[in-house]
Design goal:
The complex is a heterodimer of chains A (265) and B (314). With 265 residues, chain A is an all-alpha fold. Chain A has one domain. In chain A, 82% of the residues lie in helices and 0% in strands. In chain A, helix 2 runs antiparallel to helix 3, helix 3 runs parallel beside helix 7 and helix 5 packs antiparallel against helix 7. Chain A starts with a helix and ends in a 5-residue tail after the last helix. With 314 residues, chain B is an alpha/beta fold. Chain B has two domains: 226 residues, Rossmann fold (3-Layer(aba) Sandwich), CATH 3.40.50.300; 61 residues, Alpha-Beta Plaits (2-Layer Sandwich). Helices cover 32% and strands 30% of the residues of chain B. In chain B, the strands form three sheets. Chain B has a six-stranded mixed β-sheet, with helices on both faces. In chain B, strand 7, helix 5 and strand 8 form a beta-alpha-beta unit. The longest helix of chain B has 17 residues. The model of chain B has no long low-confidence stretch (mean pLDDT 88). Classes of the chains: A mainly alpha (265), B alpha/beta (314). The interface between A and B is medium-sized, with 27 and 32 residues. The structure holds adenosine-5'-triphosphate and magnesium ion (MG). The site of magnesium ion has 4 residues of chain B, from helix 1. Magnesium ion binds next to helix 1 of chain B.
């Protein structure tokens, strides 16, 4: 009996996730890939004649940065609408009258968007790899993948952030707040150092709070290093993945808790 | 099982206002039992609290007070939900899906096998009158009435024991209304219980066994429909409808029987009288004035009388 309900839970989450993925595809979320492809191809062609193997480095820099920004754009804008759009359009009515728990729905929708992002990032990564191969930087072509994985982790965290905000504020405000978290999340460890040097007790507490509450996104940043041909250590990858996982679990927990109590009016 | 729906002391306050939150009582201490096997009509005017009640039953909003059970289980029991169906008021579904995909997705949520899903989807879309060419068209291109039909189909994908329909006829054309009326009658014949909210009284008279009438969130009356209609309200008498009468003749009739109420109708006039004795005189007057008698009918308490709030009641 217990194993039966467990199986149902997993199956349900997969079913919801698959539909969320289908929604993303049909809402033409993958169109950004076209722009990305054009960008990478253009830079590959334009930089082909640069000297000293600098072209590979520049392509990695442009490519990974573009990948992060396209990805974050999708994470925030689609993530914010993931659940709130369903409430607004009242499509949740016919879902929750069926044997679907609110938690299963939230997790399923979240994973569906993560799947979309994974596909997106993978395709962009392949485009980048091809461009690098085209300009002859074959080592870089292989070495960028750990950095791409880190970007994907960051996108998963940002999707969770957007979803949490959307469970208690309007889509526009949620998007704005998520964007702020993205910006501050990249600065939080530097801010913390700043707080240390300022010496004042108040600023230390404030910057420490920001550091511990907001996601520390610098953990996922490896673009410049990747462009220089470095690969992150297994330790760094493992630590970042664990951090992302725990952070996401907390985010989903909050989203579920808020969503459980929600009246769908 | 005694009752398939048991509602006990259900109340719901909505918060309204942005800065200063006020509470509006939409549902006030509603208690209600529904027996299996019939079509239960949940009646009430706009804003009476029908949708609020159904949404509470479906676990979409939470009651301020009270509790309810469906099929003997508390309304928050997820397992019970695999045995019920629900079509929301003015339903809206994922517009990026086709009706076939939607029904298939919902079937998956119930854990149905692929073969069952596909055969039921086709059968249900036929039953609600969605033409086959529309089966593979995205729902964003569906009209309101078509959405309503899809809503009814999805409510039945799991072959529920009881189905909750919130104004199932809304948005349907006359043909559609007849089709859906037949569909609902067919459900009853198959043993499915139906709980439907509506304010279309002809549908109620054609379909419902039992009804409950809500007024301003309170239960006003409940019971067997025929029994409610034959209940003594002191309003008895006959209605004579005639045409082709001159104003002078109408005045003559008015004078003839005291207390007769004469109202104009598109096809003539209606004369309402209290007692049987005055009918004879009226009929004679009509004949003498070369009028045409259309009908003589006893006036019985109509559903409308039950339904419409009178100013002297509260
Ligand atoms: N989301 C909401 N916020 C505030 N008040 C609400 C909300 N939904 C309903 N109400 C109020 O609750 C009362 C009951 O509404 P409800 O929708 O249940 O009526 P109804 O019987 O379904 O009416 P209708 O026949 O128009 O569908 C109304 O006074 C309505 O204004
Ligand atoms: Mg309603």
């Amino acid at each position: 009996m217990a194993s039966n309900t467990e199986r149902n839970l997993i199956v349900l989450i997969i079913v919801v996730a698959a539909n969320a993925f289908r929604e993303a595809i049909r809402d033409r979320i993958l169109y950004n890939l076209v722009i990305f492809a054009l960008l990478v191809i253009a830079s590959a062609i334009l930089l082909k004649d640069l000297t000293d193997g600098q072209e590979g480095r520049t392509i990695v820099n442009i490519g990974l940065t573009a990948m992060l920004f396209f990805g974050v754009f999708i994470s925030i804008f689609v993530g914010v609408g993931l659940v709130s759009k369903e409430i607004e359009k009242r499509t949740v009515y016919s879902i929750f009258s069926k044997p679907v728990r609110r938690s299963e729905f939230i997790i399923g929708k979240y994973l569906g968007l993560c799947l979309t992002l994974a596909l997106n990032v993978a395709v962009m990564g392949m485009g980048l790899t091809l461009a690098l191969a085209f300009v002859g930087s074959t080592t870089l072509a292989a070495n960028i993948w750990p950095a791409i994985f880190l970007i994907f982790l960051e996108l998963m965290v940002m999707t969770g952030v957007a979803m949490v905000f959307s469970t208690f504020s309007s889509p526009a405000l949620s998007a704005l707040l998520s964007f702020l978290v993205f910006v501050i999340g990249h600065l939080s460890s530097s801010l913390r150092d700043l707080g240390e040097t300022l010496g004042s007790q108040v600023s230390k507490v404030v910057f420490d709070a920001i550091y511990f509450v907001l996601p520390n996104l610098s953990l996922f940043t490896f673009r410049t290093e990747a462009a220089a041909g470095l690969i992150p250590s297994a330790n760094m990858l493992g630590y970042s993945a664990l951090y992302a996982f725990l952070y996401i679990v907390v985010l989903l927990g909050i989203a579920v808790m808020v969503f459980q109590k929600r009246n769908f009016k | 099982m005694e009752n398939i729906v048991e509602i006990e002391g259900l109340s719901k306050d909505y918060d309204v206002g942005f800065w200063r939150k006020r509470k509006v009582r939409a549902l006030d201490d509603l208690s209600l039992n529904v027996k299996p096997g019939g079509i239960f009509g949940f009646l009430g005017g706009n804003g009476a609290g029908k949708t609020t009640t159904i949404k509470i039953l479906m676990g979409l909003i939470f009651p301020t007070e009270g509790s309810a059970k469906i099929l003997g289980s508390p309304i928050y029991d997820v397992k019970m939900r695999s045995r019920i169906g629900y079509c929301p008021e003015n339903p809206y579904f994922y517009d990026y899906l086709t009706p076939l995909e939607l029904l298939d997705y919902f079937g998956q949520l119930f854990g149905l096998d692929a073969a069952v899903r596909s055969s039921r989807s086709e059968q249900l879309l036929n039953a609600v009158g969605i033409e086959e060419i529309a089966w593979k068209r995205q729902l964003r291109k569906f009209s309101k009435g078509m959405q309503q039909r899809v809503g009814l189909a999805q409510a039945l994908i799991n072959e529920p024991e009881i189905v909750f329909l919130d104004e199932p006829m809304s948005g349907l054309d006359p043909v559609g209304r007849r089709e859906i009326r037949e569909l609902i009658a067919g459900l009853k014949a198959k043993g499915t219980s139906v709980f439907m909210s509506t304010h279309i009284l002809s549908d109620v008279e054609a379909l419902c066994d039992e009804v409950a009438i809500l007024r301003k969130g309170k239960l006003f009356a409940t019971g067997d429909l025929q029994e409610l209609l034959s209940r003594d309200t002191g309003r008895r008498g006959f209605e004579v409808i005639a045409s082709g009468l001159s104003p002078a003749a109408v005045a003559q009739i008015e004078a003839l029987s005291k207390g007769a109420v004469v109202t104009g109708k598109p096809n003539g006039i209606a004369i309402e009288v209290e007692n049987e004795e005055s009918i004879e005189g009226i009929l004679r007057t009509i004949r003498d004035n070369y009028g045409k008698l259309i009908s003589v009918l006893p006036v019985k308490q109509s559903l409308e009388d039950l339904f419409i709030e009178k100013p002297d009641e509260d």
